[in-house]
Design a protein that fits this description.
The complex is a heterodimer of chains A (306) and B (345). Chain A has 2 domains: 147 residues, NAD(P)-binding Rossmann-like Domain (Rossmann fold), CATH 3.40.50; 140 residues, Dihydrodipicolinate Reductase, domain 2 (2-Layer Sandwich), CATH 3.30.360. Chain A has 10 helices and 12 strands. In chain A, helix 1 packs across helix 10 and helix 6 packs parallel to helix 8. Chain A is globular. With 345 residues, chain B is of the alpha/beta class. Chain B has 15 helices and 8 strands. Chain B has an 8-stranded parallel barrel with strand order 1-2-3-4-5-6-7-8, surrounded by 7 helices. In chain B, helix 8 links the parallel strand 7 and strand 8. Chain B is globular and about 55 Å long. Classes of the chains: A alpha/beta (306), B alpha/beta (345). The interface between A and B is medium-sized, with 33 and 31 residues.
Chain lengths: 306, 345
């Protein structure tokens, strides 16, 4: 079960205090998701530019804000239960090092290569008690469920994942981190498929109106049958839709040992524009991990108090 | 200055299958003709050999070492699309002796080039920034983006008419706007979908472009690039010195005509429609490969891709569009009259 709805509700301690590092498109979406979660309470949004629109919007939502970045997180009197890192891959390593002694769960939305990787439909969302969880990349979140399912069913020799993100929802850190995106996504594709020969590609589309987030999975899989590929892709999409309802298979072919499965992800709900599926799928996964952590803490507290 | 993209953009015309003998033979001929820069690589640049865009016959390493060996005077250039190739690919290319690197980003996405231009500048390599699909942005916007590329440290900036959509006046306006916004040489790279590549390149030179791209026999994506062996004498006749030997460049074109199979591209139906619709020229082979077996009119596929503003790298969209047109029963009915009217807007 990927959804936290219908499970425990927060115990007497109330929702857990979380912080968001980064005020770009991902950080802003996380803040609004935290506001809607019964399990999480926004204790801090930290950026580095006091004039950034993201920081202003967070303040308008009633979140405490700071332009001191990680220093503001460390200065908090009690540690945050969860810190979301929506900065950049280069900054993340430093953030992970500084937060490690505090026992905080760090949920990483940058394409760094640290922490335990989570792809909800494949790994579930239970995090370690502390330390770092990596969400890999938006393309990784969209592709890996399909890659994993194909590799379990067929003799896959090579995998390639190509994602397209609309320009308006590719923030500055994403633009500077394309090399890390490519390396981290390819590495995760290999880790979840066992296929050593893997490649990842990212397009940023300038189209207006913006293009819907999309990922194509190409595989060399001798003998793959088109009907079976369709069935595998369909079952996989169903599982992903448990937490990202806008995830759907839009094309599926298999011939001469070449498989192509294309998925598109539209953002659900009324906060993000529909094309921003790249934010939807990774931010939804990040919040699920944090909620599971909060639920576990609440369950633990009940056991202790009983 | 003429920049020879035959061994990079020309790869699109032969499904990225140029082998060592073709690469060496052409590079030697271009070098002998006095062509100042010879660009080499997969059609979409370093690291781009893929199922999505087509697999190259030989690796980047083999392409670069073969061409480097063949060039005695000409400088060697490579191309990189951020998100396809990475800094590691750039470092390998520089180690192979690449003198010039071009970083390509779509028209409004200059910020994607910041890191890679910076990476090259730190290592003392000459880096250019080029804006692809330049028909999708206004002259003013392109000038702003070009100014950003120059700010990142690009030694030259410019535009590619990746869809072969622009006409000479469009080119002059865009190059003029960019030349007014930067102090570095301005690049123009044309495609011949509407038969205007040489005229567009001449318009670019007259509007202040300092570097004009061309390919032998027009070998390039879609309906082909600006023909090198035509451009050189046209530029000379209009007062732009190229330093390229006429007989030498004609010989290089003869070599390309003999050695690169199949025949050189020209503005056929797919090319003309692709140009009108503003579809990236590199899609041509992929559209034909998917549309024809499905019984779908490739011209309809181009118009639909144009409506969706597909850009280089989004080859996976072609499968969807063909399937949709096929299932909607619009195959070969010419149901895109509306888009046709809008195509040149």
């Amino acid at each position: 079960m990927l959804s936290t709805s219908g499970e425990h509700v927060p115990g007497a301690g109330g929702p857990v205090r979380v912080a968001v590092l980064g005020t770009g498109v991902i950080g802003q979406d996380l803040v609004s998701r935290i506001g809607r979660s019964p399990w999480l309470r926004c204790g801090l949004v930290a950026g580095r530019d006091p004039d950034s629109p993201g920081l202003r919007r967070a303040a308008e939502r009633g979140c405490p804000t700071s332009a001191d970045g990680i220093r503001a997180v460390l200065a908090s009197e009690e540690p945050f239960a969860v810190v979301f890192d929506a900065t950049s891959a280069l900054s993340h390593a430093e953030h992970a090092r500084l937060l490690a002694p505090l026992g905080t769960l760090l949920v990483d939305l940058t394409p760094s290569r640290l922490g335990r990787t989570v792809v909800p439909a494949v790994t579930g969302v239970t995090p370690p008690d502390s330390g770092s969880v990596s969400l890999i990349s938006c393309g990784g979140q969209a592709a890996i469920p399909v890659v994993h399912a194909l590799a379990r069913r067929f003799d896959v020799r090579y995998v390639e994942v190509v994602s397209t993100v609309a320009s308006v929802v590719a923030g500055r850190a994403t633009r500077l981190n394309l090399d890390e995106y490519v390396a981290t996504t390819a590495e995760a594709v290999t880790a979840f498929s066992g296929v050593s020969d893997a490649k990842a590609i990212l397009n940023i589309s300038p189209a207006v109106p913006p293009a819907v987030f999309r990922t194509a999975v190409h595989a060399v899989a001798p003998g793959a049958d088109p009907d079976e590929v369709r069935a595998v892709a369909g079952e996989t999409a169903e599982r992903v839709r448990a937490f990202a309802p806008g995830y759907r298979v839009v094309a599926c072919t298999a011939s001469d040992g070449r498989v192509v499965v294309c998925v598109e992800v539209t953002a659900a709900g009324d906060v993000l524009p529909a094309y921003a599926g790249n934010l939807d799928i990774i931010d939804a996964a990040a919040v699920l991990v944090a909620e599971r952590h909060a639920a576990r803490a609440a369950a633990g507290a009940e056991v202790v108090s009983a | 200055m003429v920049h020879d993209a035959t061994l990079r953009d020309g790869q699109h015309a032969v499904a990225h299958r140029l082998g060592v003998a073709e690469l060496r033979g052409y590079a030697e001929a271009a070098d002998a003709a006095g062509v100042p820069v010879v660009e080499v690589g997969h059609g979409l640049g370093l690291g781009a050999s893929s199922l999505q865009a087509g697999r190259a016959a030989v690796s980047d390493d083999v392409m670069l070492s073969t061409v480097r060996e063949a060039l005695r005077h000409s400088r060697m250039a490579v191309f990189l699309l951020p998100g396809w190739g990475t800094s590691a690919d750039l470092d390998r290319a520089v180690a192979h002796g690449a003198d010039v690197v071009r970083i390509g980003v779509h028209c409004t996405e200059a910020t994607l080039a910041e890191r890679h231009i910076g990476h090259l500048r730190e290592r003392g390599t000459e880096a250019y920034g080029v804006l692809m699909m330049s028909h999708m942005a206004s002259p003013g916007r392109l000038a702003e983006e070009a100014a950003l590329l120059a700010e990142y440290g690009a030694s030259g900036v410019g535009i590619m008419d990746s869809a072969g959509h622009l006409l000479p006046d469009d080119v002059a306006e865009r190059i003029g706007a960019i030349a007014g916004a930067v102090d570095v040489p301005v690049v123009f790279h044309g495609h011949d979908n509407l038969g205007c590549a040489v005229a567009n390149s001449l318009a670019a030179a007259r509007a202040g472009a300092g570097v004009v791209d061309a390919c032998a026999r027009g070998f390039g994506a879609g309906a082909g690039n600006t023909r090198l062996e035509v451009l050189v004498p046209v530029l000379e006749r209009t007062g732009f010195a190229t330093g390229v030997d006429l007989y030498g460049v004609l010989d290089a074109a003869e070599f390309a005509g003999r050695a690169f199979v199949p025949a050189p591209p020209f503005p056929d139906s797919a090319g003309i429609v692709g140009g009108l619709a503003g579809v990236v020229a590199a899609f041509r082979q992929h559209v034909l490969r998917h549309a024809l077996p499905a019984g779908v009119d490739p011209r309809d596929v181009f118009f639909e891709l144009g409506r969706r503003q597909a850009v280089a790298g989004q080859e996976d969209l072609i499968v969807d569009v063909v399937a949709e047109l096929s299932s909607s029963g619009r195959a070969r009915t010419g149901a895109h009259a509306d888009e046709r009217k809008e195509g040149t807007a």
